[in-house]
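Practice problem: Transcriptional regulator TrmB
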Amino acid sequence: MSIEESKEVSAIMSNSELFRTPGFDFINDLIARRAKAGINMRVIRTGPGDSRDLWRSSKKDRRELRCAPEDFEMGVTTYLFDDKVSIISSRAEHYALSIQSPEFFAFQMSLFEILWSVSAPVSAS
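Answer key — structure tokens:
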């Protein structure tokens, strides 16, 4: 099953790495494919804020954005969908990992929900 077949994607993205890894073009392509397929996305951004007004909450793009507490920084980007957990490292370590496991997915989603509950909503663009 691919991301285009999912019903919802949840993601944790590092502000410090967002524009470097996976990169602007990759994220824009993913946004377009996901929105076209009617898939909703919840995103938590971590680390220091970014002044660029990109990828905020958007009904059109089917995205809800929250910002993690300031002291919570992750150098990796994580995508959670179906029973898959995909992790993309910082540019410094340069790796990607995808695990398909209902148990590991459930564990990671529980952690995501805890972080989501303490993260601040970001208004729509």
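Discussion: The helical segments are 19-36, 102-118. Students who identified this feature from the tokens alone can consider the problem solved.
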